Structures are given as structure tokens and as C-alpha cells.
Amino acid sequence: MKNVKVSLVVSFLVFCLFPQGVEAVSPFTAIDSIMQGLKADSSAVSKKLPTVTVEASNITHYADRDVVHITRSMRKGARNTAQMLGNIPGIDCNYANNALTYYGSSNILILVDSLEKSADYVKELHHLRFSKVDVVPNPTGKYANYDVLINLHTKPDYTGYEGNVFQQMSVRPNEDNGKNKKFSGDYSSASFTYTKNKWNFIGRYNFRFLQSEKNNAESTYTNHVNRLQESTTSPMSFTNFFRIHNTYWAIDHQINKNHSVSASYYYSADAKDDYTYAEAERLWLDSGKKETIGKSGVSRINSDRHTLGLYYRGRSGVWNYTYDFNYINDGWTSDKNYRQNTGYASDNYFRNHMDYVWTKSEVNRRFFNNRFYFSAGYNFTWKDYEQEDRLTRNLLSENAYHRNEIWTWLSYRIKDGTDLNFSASAEHVKTHTASYEDKNMVYKFSGMFYHRWNKKIWMRLNYWCNTSYPQLDQVTEYGYFTDSLTWSGGNLALRTQVYHSGRLWVDFFNLFNIQTGYNYSPNQFSNIIGRGEGTLPSGENGAYITYTPENMLYKEFWTTI
């Protein structure tokens, strides 16, 4: 009966549009021809009749997402997956760097078969391996802080390989303020993937080199601790070199439809050299004494980092499980040299080492016809730092911390176009060195309310909480003079930084939006400038500036249109 009704409607429309008749093609014959064509080729999106063309959309709209079936026209001219995604309404791709935006927002998460993958890797894949795309604006659950989620679905039993090679060089066409660094940079990359049914093999290499030279404007500053005023008599010159090599290898295996395992290895070697030189006139405010000095500085950092990752994704009934294990072994040298033409010199040669382990366990499922989402998990982190004198091999500082965190995330779709979610966690942080130990609790929570009034206007209210943990140079037990009047040190009592953020976003017609927010941190990291007094590097007694990291209160309100 349903097919008869459809046929009668089409018959009436054809009669109205073509009262003289369609050449030897009745409405019933047209419908039959279309149905047979669709049965013969499920990927067909149109069937051209002698005088009538019936178009079918490749996008299916649901309450919370759009499902886009990838068509030949979407693939045409697209070199990789990023460029293919740029052909989806609302998504734009910058062909220069594969950057994606969704109605102007770059806050995007990309999944492959509902699993999180490296976005840079996925963008470079060829789009032939994918059959459809889920576009989920304002996602709920653990992805609620993203503006859109893009989930790519691979074809079953796909076999193929892809390779990409990229080279970019930057050359300045002029002297650039009188400096001679016309060749400013090089970026090269190569990637290869091979897929056979349920196995994926990935390899990638990147190289980057940058160099620059510039002059900073003349400046004057007053050191009130030492009653010293210093003015540069010529612009300060600054030269920078940066180079990095990294390689990435991974293997992924889909055991069956419910379980998959992955392993990855990442190696990175980078180097950074900074050179500065300036001439300055010093005025001692109390005595009126003047002197002109030349000062230069060199900072060199060389790093080798190895990263190993193991990952599991599983499903049992309605329950989903994930487990991540990451280990980082990082070693780097940090050489800092300072010279004055007065004869003062400061040389600091450091060798640093870090071992880092991070694991994440999660279980999640949906209730009430997929309207309610629940997830919970446990995270464990261990980090160990060592710092030594690179020349004498004397241990200068060591510290370690352990973090144990339990968390949960809840979200509920009240109705189509209205979502509410909430997350909370409690984390125990233990820090210890040879002479100091500290324990504290860190509590976090976040929430989001989303409501769409109609197809053109929606609002989103977010509150979330982020944490940052001290780095080696912030908690080191070792302090030193960076120049003849400046001392830099660490703070063993520096605690975890907790950063609270809130945002209200109202969007009109996907073209115009108003956002306003508030940021608050009761213990933000900040360098406090203080006064020290004692023996200076020159051997004389006097006052000097101290730089020490501390926790401080921070507040900020912002708005954009």
C-alpha cells in the first residue's frame, strides 16, 4: 500500500509538470527503474531518466548528528582525508596545512571507527578507505568540551597502502632588516600506511629546521633592588636555530568487532640554540657612577625522547572498556653561558633525565535508550626527574611525584536539542625529594548545558577545570646566578596548578556568535621577583635579584563577538 501511495504521488507530480506526457516513460516505469538501479548499486545517488532526474541526498540528519555517505564528487580533487572532509557542509579545510574548522571553530576531535587516533595521521590518509562520516556537533559524554566530533568509518576488509611526501622551504627575498638569514626554514615529512583487513601498519618521519635573526628595540629598565638603571645603547641582536627529527611507528589490530589492540613507538631528537648580544650603559643611581658594558649569552638545548604506547579497546555487551599505557624516557642537555666584557663569566652545564609512566583505565556505557551516558576510570602517573652537572656528573637535584586519580563523567540528553553533563575527579598527589615531601588532594569538576531553540539559534554554557604540574626547572633544588646580578632557583613546595574556566556561547544562524567567559586559578604558576643579599659572583657582598616560581591567585574576564 505504501508503494502504491508513493507511485500515485509521483504520477500526479509528473502529470502536473509534463501535461504533454513523458516520452514513453510512465511514473510507474520511472519508479521501477529507480528502485532497480538502487538495488543494483547501493552507492548510487541519482538516476537519470530521459527527461527527469531524481536526486537523493548523501546526508542523513538525526537528532544529534549528521551521517554523510562519501560520494565520488566528495572525493574528486581531494588528495587526502582532510581535503575530503572539507567538502562536507560546515567543514572547511586549509589546503596549505590540512587545518580543519567547523563553522569557524577549530575545537574538533577526529575518531576512526569510534576510536581516538592521531589527527595529523588521519588527515594524511587516503579517503578511499572510508565509506561514511558521522558529524556530531556539541557532543555529549567525555567529548563534551569539543565543539564537534568527526567519526570516520572504514570499509570492511579494506586492503591498500598510501604514501605521502611533503617538502616546504622558506626563503626571504630581501635582507630582512639588514640580517643575512635569507633561508629561514625547512619542513619535510614522509608517511606510509598499509592496511590488510584488520591490520594497520603506520610509519611517519618529520624534519623541521628554522633559523632567524632580529634586533630588539632599544630599551631602559631600572633594578630597584640594586639601584641600577641599564639602557641598551644599540638594539639587542638575537639569533635562533631550531631543528627537530622525529619518527613514529605503530601497529593496530582489530581482533574482532569487540576488541582491538595497538602499539606505538615515537622517537624525537631536537636541538635549539639561542644567541644574544647587546651593549648597555649602566647608571648606579645612588653614586651616579656610569659604565658601558657588552654582554652576550648562549643557550643550547639538545634532547632525545623515546615514547612507547600500548592501547586496548574492548566491548562486552553494553559495556565498553579502554586501557592506555604510556612510557617516556627523556634525556636532554641544557647549556647556559653568559659573558660580560668586564671579565665576568657564568657557565652552567646541565644534564637532565626524566622517566614518565601514565596509565588510564575506563569503563562506560549508555542507559535509557542512549539518553544517559556514564563513564568512570582510574589514572596513575609516576614521574621521576634527575639533574646533574654535565661536566662533573655531580647530582644537583632529584624529585619525583605520584598521582592517583579516580573520576567519573555523566551526561543526559533531556530532549532533542537539550543536553546536560557533569564530571568530577579526586586526585592524590605525592611529591618527594631527598629533603622534602608533600601530599595534597586535587579536586576537579566540570559541567555543560546545551540548548537549541531552533535550527538557527543555540546556546552552550560550559564550566571546566584543568590542571598543570610543575616541571623540573620549577621544583629543582639547585639555584644559580644567570648573570652577575640575577639568581634563578626552584621551589620544592610548588603545588599543582588548578585552572577553572567558564564560557557562555550563543550562536546565530551559524554565522554570528557572542562568547563570554571567566578564568580563575587560586594557585597559578608565576615567577616572583625578589631580593637576595650575599656574596655576588664577583666575590663582593651585595644585593641581587631573585627569580623563584610561586603559586599565586589569577582572575580574568573576557568577551568576544
Task: Explain the overall architecture.
This protein is mainly beta. It has helices at residues 2-17, 27-40, 72-75, 81-85, 119-124, 472-475, and strands at residues 46-48, 53-55, 59-61, 66-69, 91-94, 99-102, 108-112, 115-116, 130-137, 148-154, 159-171, 183-196, 199-216, 220-223, 228-232, 236-256, 259-284, 290-316, 319-340, 345-367, 372-389, 395-415, 418-433, 437-452, 457-468, 480-483, 486-488, 497-508, 512-535, 541-560. It has a 20-stranded mixed beta sheet that branches. Strands 3-4-9-10-7-8 form a 6-stranded mixed beta sheet, with no helix packed on it. Strands 1-2 form a two-stranded antiparallel sheet. β14 (220-223) and β15 form a beta hairpin. The relative contact order is 0.06.
Low-confidence parts lasting 5 or more residues at pLDDT below 50? 1-55
Proportion of strand residues: over 45%
Q: What level of helicity do the residues show? A: under 10%
Tally of alpha and pi helices:
6
Largest sheet: 20 strands, mixed
How far is it from the N-terminal to the C-terminal residue, by CA? 54 Å
Radius of gyration (Å) = 31 Å
Q: On the 0-100 scale, what is the average pLDDT?
A: 83
Structural class: mainly beta
Shape call: globular
Strands, count: 30
